Amino acid sequence: MTKPAARRSLFEPPDIGQMATATKIVLYTVLLAWSAFVLFPIYWLIITSFKTIAAVNQGPYFLPWIDFEPSLHAWKELFVNDYRDTFRAYFNSIVISLSATALAILVGSMAAYALSRVKFAPNLITILYFVGLLALTGVAVGIYDVDWRVAAATAIALFFFLARAIGRLYQLRLQNGDILFWIISQRILAPIVVVVPIYMMFQSVRLLDTHLAIILTYTVINLPVVVWLMYDFFNSIPRDLEESAQLDGATMIGIFREIILPLSRAGLAATTLLVVILCWNEYLLALFLSTNKAQTMPILVAAMNAGERGILWWTMSAVIMIMIIPVVIMAILLQKYIAKGILVGAVKG
Amino acid sequence: MKNKDKGTAKSISIRSMNKFFQAVHVLKDLSLEVQAGEFLVLLGPSGCGKSTALRLIAGLESISSGELFIGETNVTNVLPKYRDIAMVFQSYALYPHKTVAENIGFPLKMAKTPKADIDTAVLAAAQQVELGDYLERFPGQLSGGQRQRVALARAIIRRPSVFLMDEPLSNLDAKLRGNMRAELKYMQSKLGVTMIYVTHDQIEAMTLAHRVAVLKDGTLQQLGTPKEVYSNPANLFVAGFMGSPPMNFISGAIDNESFTTKGVKLPLPGAPKSNQVTLGFRPEDCRIVKAGSGAMDAEVYTAELTGDQVLVTLQLHGSQIVSRMPKEFEIGDTQIAGIEVDARHLYLFDSESGLRITADSTR
Fold first, then answer.
1. B80, A247: Cβ pair inside 8 Å?
2. What pLDDT score was predicted for residue B358?
3. Does B104 share its domain with B190?
4. How many CB atoms lie within 10 A of CB B134?
5. Do residue B215 and residue B252 come from a single domain?
6. Which residues contact A238 (CB under 8 A, 6 or more apart)?
7. What residues in chain B have per-residue pLDDT under 70?
8. Residue B185 within a domain
9. CB–CB contact B81 A238 (8 Å)
């Protein structure tokens, strides 16, 4: 049977499963407008980094070679005059972001896997003792100068005594959902609240302005994100697969390597990308924890704002440009896995 | 027991096995002896504990109390991978990121078999289930029946001594299910393995099993050959669960060696006096006759032609009675019809306990 000649109006789709011409026009107009809106700041950034001081101050100019003559002076300042600062900050950012991400993914995904597969039922009262005794030990050592070994031994003894004596009377137990919420609540907390205690802590162990301090802090603040995202991912892997592998003779490590890891690759890629970006952009904690040697890129950008020469828009734009590039490259590299992750679901009958 | 006696069928002995999930008693004192090479079906409605029993045998759940022997070995506390068991899951549990060949070869890979040996074994297993041409595909690219075969091949490649199957056919369409049923039966007898098969489908149980174990609420109701369970049910539950359409039940009383209820009086010589009994007879053991000439009269509800027979449903005091009639039978516009029951195929149960009451005249 031949199709009747298509004489559809602008508002009707030419065939089933296609879009009407009018719909297409509206759709692409909206998408183009939105893209322009989103991409314009980046364009603005690029041209500003090539503008002379005069071109910025007398602006606004939009078109290189037409409104203004491009100049490399900002890039020269960044890579020739101040190259030490630039490269140090760049290097710091890369080391800190990658290390913190690796640590957070490693620890966080293991925690998430455990939460998704093992039923925990810690006694609430026992947890309260533990936290209480920990605080008391800290006070005893820090304020009253008790020998830390004595304090720790006393606290451990007291903990076991209390857990056995009173812990049994109260059977209020937490569940995995409570633990998960507790972990997420760490992220809900505004970092500004803990920034001073964190500062003092690292000051007392003389780790201020070191990579280690920032890496550890970033790992901790990003753990909840990893746990939260990976928990959902691990939960979506059917338990049948693991049980089947178990019967097929796989060990725990075998199951993790052969089944869990390949199936959660997409989730790991997405989570890694997100955590890298969060570390890469972090400003507040880096501001407190680094003074000079361990400065990261966001600090460098902010510094452009506070020089005695006023705001250096041109140099700032150039710094931001080089800051964006690695993240874009990573997103492109990992995009393959993220897209694949949607397709590779578990097979259902 | 890890590698020796590979592939020889082993017996399974379940000795007063119990399972609790917190306070819920899921499996109550189950004892079963499965012969080496036997095809045993665990049959029951959903939630009866049959899948739990299978998972306990596989070692995926711990046994709360009781003992489990495979062959001569006590495996009550043995890890699943040392039990020499293969299991086919309801969802097939194929690894979606591995090809068919990798899926089938996975147990051997985990056993650190040399690559060349794996390849030969995979090919042999795949040919056995007619999947030779699909080795490079991923499970997502296969049909339901093909996935089922991959799961089967993955199970047989290890030549385990015991096969466990958890409703393996329930995700297939009716026609494929029939084919696979026949294939499973053929394969089991050819490989000669011990098979424990869980299903809620009594037709699968009837057709596949050497013996059927009927479970309800975690308790074993009856264990016997399909024929025994069908024609000699131990209680009301088994009688009602086996057979499609199910057995007809009429409640009444036994008085003066005859079954009586409103408008019905059936002589049952030798039946003990009782106030609450249930009379059962199968649809194939009763016939529709003219009103007044059978054992009882009932209102005609529907007549369904299924192709090879006519199922006539009648209503008697609010309960339905089905009679299986030859395909030539026509009910016409009859409103009230008589039911003639075969006196040799009557079953009598105590309404309260559900247990069979035997009388001289009942089976």
1. yes
2. 79
3. yes
4. 19
5. no
6. A346, B91, B93
7. 1-7, 359-363
8. yes
9. no
Reported as a pLDDT band with limits 50, 70 and 90, residue A2 is low
Q: Is A347 on the interface with B (CB under 8 A)?
A: yes
The residue of chain B with its CA nearest to that of A340 is B97
Which of A251, A258, A345 lies nearest to residue B96, judging by beta carbons?
A: A345
Q: Please count the helices (runs of H) and the strands (runs of E) in chain B.
A: 8, 21
Q: For residue B139, give the nearest of A246, A259, A347 by CB distance.
A: A347
Residues of B in contact with A259 (CB under 8 A): 95
pLDDT at res. A28: 95
Are B110 and A241 within 8 A, CB to CB?
Answer: no
**Fold category of A90-120+209-342 in CATH:** MetI-like fold (1.10.3720)
Nearest to A244 by CA among B55, B196, B76: B55
pLDDT for res B4: 44
Per-residue pLDDT for A346 more than 60? no
Residue A259, pLDDT > 80, answer: yes
Q: Is residue B322 part of a domain?
A: yes
**In chain A, where are the structural domains located?**
90-120+209-342
Could you give the CA distance from residue B260 to residue B29 in angstroms, rounded to a whole number? 38
Return the structure tokens found at A56.
Answer: 């910025």
In a domain, B7, yes or no: no
**B213 and B310 co-located in one domain:** no
Closest CB from A246, A259, A347 relative to B147: A347
B139 secondary structure, DSSP code: G
Nearest chain B alpha carbon to A343: B140
Residue A51 confidence (pLDDT): 84
Task: Nearest chain A residue to B170 by CA: give it.
Answer: A349
Co-location of B305 and B157 in the same domain: no
Confidence of residue A342 (pLDDT cuts 50, 70, 90): very low
Does A250 contact B at CB distance below 8 Å? yes
Whether B81 and A263 lie within 8 Å, measured CB to CB: no
Residue B183, domain extent: 12-237
Chain B residue with Cα closest to A348 = B91
In this prediction, residue B361 carries a pLDDT of 58
Q: Write the CATH number for B206.
A: 3.40.50.300
- Closest C-alpha among B102, B213, B141 to residue A343: B141
Residue B6: per-residue pLDDT: 53
If one compares A183 and A168, the residue with the highest pLDDT of the two is A183
Based on the fold, state whether residues B153 and B258 are members of the same structural domain.
no
Nearest to A240 by CA among B167, B114, B298, B271: B167
Q: Given an 8 Å threshold on Cβ–Cβ distance, is A349 in contact with B111? A: no
| B90 CB-near residues (< 8 Å, 6+ apart) | A349, B166, B167, B168, B170, B171
Has residue A4 got a pLDDT over 60?
no
B-facing residues of A in 263-322 (CB < 8 A) are: 263
| Residues in chain B closer than 8 A to A238 (CB atoms) | 91, 93
Mean pLDDT of A125-150: 87
- Is pLDDT of A349 > 80? no
Closest CA to B153 of B101, B115, B231: B101
CATH number at residue B329: 2.40.50.140
Together in a domain, B61 and B82: yes
B237, B270, B295 - which closes a domain? B237
Task: Look at chain B and report how many structural domains it folds into.
Answer: 2
**Token digits for A249?**
């003779």
pLDDT (0 to 100) of residue B360: 63
- Do residues B227 and B255 share a domain? no
Q: Per the CB < 8 Å rule, is A248 touching B110? A: yes
Residue A322, judged by CB atoms within 10 A of its CB (0-12, 13-18, 19+), counts as middle
Select from B188, B215, B237 the last residue of a domain.
B237
Q: Give a yes or no: residue B139 inside a domain.
A: yes
Min Cα separation A236/chain B (Å): 13
Residues B194 and B286 in one domain: no
